């Protein structure tokens, strides 16, 4: 393969990956019932050497451990850290029904398809919180 074609393919793949999100740390900026609005804590580095500040991700469902009729929950406050995990496919229909759906939007790994795992902290913050002992 010629260097020109190889460079073109590399550029196309890089451009596509710029809009593919997998997981990012973030900070809760507001709480709305079972959903939070989250500001990603990392900027996006673009191929041209510039950076872009990512927008607040709205209406993110919060994950809490649950199963067998039991769950563990805790209050979420503005400023809490979290890990945003981005779904492989659009969550729009799933958020409406909570059941198995076929997404109608073709987007993949989009910013609007995040789930928040609240409790992530940098540098061990919160390590001296009261721990539940069994």
The biggest beta sheet reads:
5 strands, antiparallel
Give start-end ranges of low-pLDDT stretches: none
Give the strand order of the largest sheet, numbering strands 1, 2, ... along the chain: 5-2-1-8-9
Q: Can you give the mean pLDDT? A: 86
Distance between the termini: 62 Å
- Alpha-beta classification: alpha+beta
Oligomer: single chain
Outline of this structure?
The chain is 16% helix and 30% strand. It has 134 residues and is an alpha+beta fold.
Please explain how this structure is put together:
- By secondary structure, the chain is α+β, with helices and mostly antiparallel strands.
- The protein is built from 2 helices and 9 strands.
- The strands form 3 sheets. It has a 5-stranded antiparallel β-sheet, with no helix packed on it. Strands 3-4 form a two-stranded antiparallel sheet. Strands 6-7 form a two-stranded antiparallel sheet.
List keywords for this structure.
alpha+beta; 30% strand; 134 residues; single chain; globular
């Amino acid at each position: 393969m010629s260097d020109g074609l190889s460079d073109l393919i590399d550029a196309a793949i890089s451009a596509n990956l710029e809009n593919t999100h997998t997981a990012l740390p973030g900070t809760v900026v507001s709480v709305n019932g079972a959903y939070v609005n989250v500001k990603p804590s990392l900027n996006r580095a673009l191929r041209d050497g510039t950076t872009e500040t990512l927008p607040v991700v709205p209406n993110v469902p919060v994950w809490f451990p649950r199963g067998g009729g039991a769950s563990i929950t805790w209050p979420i406050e503005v400023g809490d850290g979290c890990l945003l995990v981005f779904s492989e496919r659009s969550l729009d229909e799933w958020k409406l029904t909570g059941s198995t759906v076929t997404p109608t939007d073709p987007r993949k790994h989009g910013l609007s398809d995040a789930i928040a795992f609240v409790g992530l902290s940098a540098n061990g913050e919160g390590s001296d919180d009261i721990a539940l002992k069994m």
